[in-house]
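Methods — Computational structure assignment.
A single polypeptide chain was analysed. Its primary sequence is given first, followed by the predicted tertiary structure written as structure tokens.
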Amino acid sequence: AQCMLLSADEQRQRLFTVGSAGYAVTGVGAEIAYGAGVIGVAARERMPIRITHMARDYLYGSIVREQFQAAGDRGVEREIPLPGLADSRSQLAMPIVGDGRLLAVLYIESPVDGGVSQVDEEACAVLADQFADSWLRLSSLEQQAADDPAQAAAKAAVGGEPLCVSHDPSD
């Protein structure tokens, strides 16, 4: 499966690609409006969207195309192309929300029907929660550093042994 991470700009109601994996081009800097396509709708609604069989979910795709046409295709900026599979059959757009704010969207797609499963969605939800917690902690540390640099440095110290996590294909 291919994936990308898009950072949210709530003020402008847009998402910006900050990283991707598995595509011919990175698309870093590409932007998409809230409400445009699977990614934009997930951002706007702050709800995950998983499509497992594009043929079965054709109606959803036609609705999204109509929205693009009605908007004059202004939903996606064309200066930097958004990475994506031409033959995507399964998709998941997982909003990353922290402190009531949309922080980012994690997007995964596969050229295989059912290539993005319920288990993938659940794993991405856990990842999204961890990402949001880390983002908020870092934001808090940045604010503390601005207010009291010495105290922020003491709080930022982390102890303990590193944790190694692996995935066994049989799980």
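Note: Residues 118-147 form the longest helix (30 residues).
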